[in-house]
Amino acid sequence: MSTSYPGTVNEDTPPQPTSPENPAGAEDEAVIALAHSLLDAARTGDAAALLSLVDQGAPVNLRDGAGNSPLMLAAYHGHAELVRELAARGADVDLMNDRGQSPLAGVAFKGFTDAARVLLEAGADPDLGRPSALETATYFERAEILSLIQARRA
Fold it and tell me: Where is this region: Disordered (predicted)?
């Protein structure tokens, strides 16, 4: 079950029009633009932009319309050092998206060993989600990621 929050922003979220009846429309548009820039920075690995926004108070666990957090997006795109910095700033390393996928399962799918190492060091649970990171790494024969998971359990 997902825990999507009201007001979640994604690429399909239409901007609210500004009018005399909706004077806050410009503010709404600015908030949506900020959320888009934060999530885009996570996807592209723009650590300077993303971490600056988070350090200024942007929610580190903001989620898009599919439930993906900045940490999930950074991990899925292989930005291991950005994942480390987000985790250090309080990002939930086990926050699953609306499909029940964890960031660790995402990196196991993609084969990003460095990102998997960072997530495991930050306490990510390899058994979380459907399929779990352990199941995903096994299925795709990600030997290095499986070794990291096994070493964490030892």
Answer: 1-25
